[in-house]
Write a structure and sequence with these properties.
30% of the residues lie in helices and 24% in strands. The protein has 17 helices and 22 strands.
């Protein structure tokens, strides 16, 4: 064997043992005739001690060793001298007295710092990813990802689910984002699409009689990137037959309970709390609320529309709303602090931010002059402020006000340190609407996905008031982050065709894109539904990473480029001809 132990394995029980180690030279400290080397692998660090007086060959080799050289060491385990033990290391009681050492492979000086002593540019870290992955932080993140994935596999296996792979190259079907397309050489002019999810195939598996399916599924979406999004991502995807929504929620929350216990030894109390989509927007402004802190939205429309403040009155007469957040004890916010909040809400389409301070038992602020004492008293009873509270107010369209204040409450909570570290706020958001209106196209579109079943009592609303119809969709949220989505599926082909037509698909488009699954529904379809956890997001939250790039082995940058291997790259003219493609690039 090339090694008898790893660099994180030896301890006092190994005193006197002859061992063989291999790893990277992490730090090298020369003290005349004695050289100390911290030898590192993914398991830990072992201190080795080289007495250069033992032989000229050992001295010569030791003199040549530099940082990140891979070296082979043979020697005896002994106790470190009293007072030199390192309690921070599992190997801190021992060291290896070297009898033989040689260089396996040398290393150039590293272009990035692995120890965090100097700040490394992220682009440079991505370019030299194979080096960056040696860092303790990234290795711990990858280890955590492995443990979470295994915990999911163990849970679904114990529940009788089959792990079934579905195709990577498939038909292009609309799922909310642009597809990555793969041209077919043997079928000129035709394309495969990389899956945005295994949606269609897992439903077909339910029709095939596999009533419990799961998959650690790779998915692909051609969309703009951000901290929690990559062009390729991973879902813990699962589907069940002969179930209702509560059955799916039960399995989903027991799965996450099992993962949290196995990976972090954290007990999650079940059942998880449930909040309707409507309640989430009313109280928190967003459909993925972080409920670890207060700062709930307060509807002041009926009160603040009674004054002479034209900005408010115009909004309300146009069907808008007025909502507020009470920031307790922060009447001392400076004008600069408030200006920063105002600029923040404008990101979400709000035109401005009004505010009131509650001091000496009364409201203060430039807008108080527009309201009578009776209205201000009514406002006081509604908000129930305490001394030195700051009430920030946004008026506008319902969606704009909700988004502005909903995101602002998260900003304020972070700014004021209202969230305790290592807290896990899991909840379900249920009863999503079936449809919503696309404001750009003024076209009805699906709110969750086009396969979500409408609530039984709302079926007749599809013809009368489709925007009021509620679907069988639901989300799991963790600490204000959407962790996954699911629903009970439509299994009636006539109803599915109707929904497709309602979102603007023609009969020809429906047949071309979904004809095969609609036909399958004619051969006995069980009631089924499913869910998909976003594995990347879960790992990101549980590791405390700042972005998904920190929990992936080989991520892309913000432009979707892999700096390490320069993908995507140009291809040869020969390859294009084989695929019957001709480029029409924009002029520079």
């Amino acid at each position: 064997m090339r090694r008898t132990h790893t660099c994180g394995e030896l301890n006092s029980s190994n005193f006197g043992a002859k061992v063989i180690l291999e790893g990277w030279a992490d730090t090298i400290r020369n003290h005349g005739n004695i050289t100390f080397i911290d030898l590192r692998d993914r398991y830990g660090v072992t201190q080795i001690v080289v007495d250069n007086t033992k032989s000229d060959s050992i001295a010569q080799v030791t003199k040549s060793i530099r940082k990140e050289f891979v070296i082979h060491v043979e020697g005896l385990v002994r106790a470190r001298p009293s007072g030199t033990e390192n309690k921070d290391l599992s190997t801190g009681e021992i060291e290896v007295d070297v009898e033989k050492v040689f260089v396996v492979n040398s290393s150039l000086p590293l272009p990035i710092d692995l120890n965090g002593r100097t700040e490394t540019n992220e682009e440079l870290s991505l370019k030299y990813r194979y080096i960056a992955l040696r860092s303790t932080n990234l290795q711990k993140n990858i280890e955590m990802r492995h443990k979470i994935t295994k915990a999911f596999r163990d849970f679904y296996d114990s529940e009788g689910f089959f792990d079934i792979e579905t195709p990577i190259m498939a038909k292009s079907t609309p799922e909310g984002a642009r597809d990555y397309l793969v041209p077919s050489r043997v079928n000129p002019g035709k394309f495969y699409a990389l899956p945005q999810s295994p949606q269609i195939f897992k439903q077909l598996l339910m029709l095939s009689g596999f009533d419990k399916y799961y998959q650690i599924a790779r998915c692909f979406r051609d969309e703009d990137l951000r901290a929690d999004r990559q062009p390729e991502f991973t879902q813990v995807d699962w589907e069940m037959s002969f179930v209702n929504r509560d059955d799916l929620l039960d399995v989903g929350e027991r799965a996450i309970q099992s993962v949290m216990k196995k990976v972090l030894n954290v007990d999650i109390k079940l059942p998880l709390k449930r909040i309707s989509y409507k309640e989430a927007l009313e109280r928190y402004g967003v459909d993925k609320p972080d409920t670890r802190f207060g700062l709930e939205l307060i509807d002041l429309t009926s009160i603040l529309s009674k004054g002479d403040f034209n900005a408010f009155n115009t909004v309300v007469s146009g069907g808008g709303v007025i909502k507020a957040i009470n920031i307790e004890g922060k009447a001392d916010f400076s004008r600069k602090d408030i200006s920063e909040l105002e600029e923040f809400v404008k990101i979400y389409g709000a035109k401005g931010l009004a505010y009131l301070k509650y001091t000496n038992g009364a409201f203060e602020g430039s807008i108080t002059k527009f309201f009578s004492p009776s209205v201000l008293e009514e406002l006081k009873n509604k908000v129930n402020p305490k001394e030195n509270d700051l009430i920030v107010i946004v008026a506008g369209k319902y969606n704009v006000v909700s988004a502005a204040l909903g995101n602002m409450r998260n900003l304020i909570a972070k700014k004021l340190g209202l969230v305790k570290p290592n807290t896990w706020d899991y909840l379900w958001v249920v009863d999503f609407p079936m449809f919503e209106m696309d404001e750009e196209t003024n076209q009805l579109t699906y709110a969750h996905n086009p396969f979500s079943m409408v609530r039984e009592e709302d079926k007749e609303l599809l013809d009368k008031e489709p925007l009021k119809a509620i679907s069988g969709s639901f989300d799991m949220v963790l600490n204000g982050v959407e962790l996954g989505s699911g629903c009970i599926r439509i299994t009636n082909p006539d109803l599915q065709r109707k929904v497709f037509k309602m979102i603007g698909l023609s009969e020809e488009e429906i047949e071309a894109r979904f004809g095969f699954i609609l036909n399958a529904y004619n051969y006995g379809a069980p009631v089924h539904g499913g869910f998909a956890f976003g594995l990347d997001r879960l790992v990101m939250i549980l590791t405390g990473a700042g972005s998904i790039r920190e929990i992936l082995a080989f991520p892309k940058n913000k432009s979707g480029i892999s700096l390490m291997d320069d993908a995507p790259s140009e291809v040869s003219e020969k390859q294009l001809k084989e695929l019957h493609l001709q480029l029409d690039l924009p002029k520079e």
